[in-house]
Design brief:
Length: about 475
């Protein structure tokens, strides 16, 4: 068995790129993308782009739905002797309301601090060597574990225990309450956290995106264990959970283990997730943050949700403005700014999101000059068509970024955990297990005319939010 496993790992390719029928390895991706730009010969006046062949990723993803509603996505990959298990629950700060903000994050803390029955299971994991963690987002909560192949059943058993009851105690509850409160204490000295918290509160008048995943401190301090148990019972059900497993296993055996340990969990209906829709911003907003802070300028715009057909154009706009050494804003603001960036993470939202730009100024008296230049660059993008070379460079960049990382650069597509995370984020936000193909097709179908129209639509100065910080400070 060991010999067969070794041969299998050597011979198996975990995934492949396909461009115009030719197989391309991940390490050759950037070369393949840049080749289109090098070979491009059209002129700026016509802005006629050479037709691009479809870009495909060959991932063998199998979807299985248990009778109780649990969804399993399995990605068999024998490139390394590890297995990555990611469990997503469709519950995030988007599912909270005033008085219960921070509840999703509290549940994540409690579940990863086992007590009662599943404490013994975690003790067994300690013996075999494993790594685990969790994250609370606006739209979901994830739990991550990596184990050696011979510990797959134990890992599945531990993850299934997350849906078998909130195994906690008053002592653990109080300890994790204090941990969350301490997180707020550290955040009070973080200028960026303070600024973004106020920015989002201004941008969203009614939608739950107005607060961070950590919630409001007074809610966190005053929530009760009974409230947490009620939230757990509503959201932590099989029909509201997606288990994604990638790595060195046999798919049929994985399905057997998942049915064995998750199957007995009673079926309950998934919660109805309804939200107050944002009424929309009717004018520009500008405010100055007076707390201690470096000299920063933030400019934010309302943009569509992740699954929206125009969201790829927003990503391309951001790439044109700030990605790369010769980005449009980076070049024009070089005299007054040390760095210009966009918070790409804010685009990954189930509902309409924010595109937030941050300009790190050289001096505290340059906010107005920087904003004037920023506005001029945006107006240029709204007025003229990008040249063929400019547009192809931007498209290559967003394609490469899309397959390289989603939330953090450490999640590479060519790692087992990276693939699981990548597929999971796309599936949870869109409901489509192969949404990445739709997104890649959208990049290839985009044109300079479409990009200009999107810039006019979404980078509207009457609907932006501007934040200045560090004025008059040294």
């Amino acid at each position: 068995m060991k010999l067969r496993s070794s041969v299998r790992r050597t011979a198996t390719v975990p995934f492949r790129w396909s461009i115009a029928g030719e197989r391309v390895t991940p390490m050759r991706l950037s070369i393949a993308l840049m080749a289109g730009a090098i070979a491009l010969t059209t002129t700026v006046l016509t802005v006629t782009l050479r037709a691009q062949p479809p870009l495909r990723i060959d991932l063998d993803i199998r979807r299985t739905v248990l009778e109780n509603g649990l969804t399993l996505l399995s990605i068999e990959d024998h490139s390394a002797p590890k297995i990555n298990l990611m469990q997503y629950v469709r519950m995030g700060s988007r599912d909270e309301y005033q008085g219960t903000t921070g509840m999703s994050h509290r549940l994540e803390h409690l579940i990863l601090k086992p007590s009662g029955g599943n404490a013994a299971l975690y003790a067994e994991l300690e013996k075999v060597g494993y790594s685990f963690g969790g994250h609370t987002f606006n739209d979901m909560t994830d739990y991550i574990m990596q184990v050696p192949p011979d510990s797959l059943e134990l890992a599945v058993r531990v993850w299934a225990s997350h849906l078998e009851g909130l195994n906690t105690s008053p002592e653990v509850w109080e300890r994790e309450r204090q941990v969350q409160i301490n997180e707020f204490a550290s955040g009070r000295t973080n200028a960026e956290i303070q600024i973004l918290q106020r920015l989002y509160s201004m941008a969203y008048m009614s939608h739950p995106y107005q607060w961070r995943a950590s919630g409001w401190e007074s809610d966190v301090a005053n929530m009760t264990l009974a409230q947490a148990e009620a939230a757990y019972d509503r959201f932590y059900v099989p029909a509201n959970t997606v288990l994604i497993v990638g790595g060195d296993f046999q798919t049929d055996e994985l399905i057997r283990l998942v049915k064995k340990h998750y199957g007995p969990i009673p079926a309950r209906p998934a919660p109805v997730r309804s939200y107050t829709q944002e009424i929309g911003q009717s004018g520009s907003m500008d405010f100055t943050y007076r707390g201690p802070s470096p000299a920063w300028l933030y400019v934010a715009y309302h943009v569509p949700a992740y699954a929206d057909s125009e969201q790829p154009l927003v990503q391309m706009i951001a790439a044109y403005l700030v990605k790369g050494r010769n980005s449009a804003l980076g070049t024009r603001l070089r005299e007054v700014a040390d760095r210009v960036q966009a918070r790409d993470i804010d685009l990954y939202r189930a509902d309409p999101a924010l595109l937030v730009f941050k300009v790190e100024l050289k001096r505290a008296d340059q906010h107005d000059a920087a904003l004037s230049t920023f506005t001029a660059v945006v107006e240029d993008l709204q007025t003229r068509l990008l040249s063929a070379d400019e547009f192809t460079r931007v498209r290559n960049r967003v394609e490469t970024d899309f397959v390289s990382y989603i939330l953090h650069p450490v999640w590479r597509l060519w790692t087992q955990g990276g693939k699981s995370h990548w597929i999971g984020q796309n599936y949870l936000l869109t409901g489509d297990v192969r949404f990445y193909e739709t997104r890649l097709d959208a990049y290839r179908a985009a044109t300079p005319e479409m990009l200009r129209a999107a810039a006019r639509k979404y980078l509207d100065p009457t609907g932006r939010i501007v934040v200045r910080s560090g004025q008059g400070q040294r």
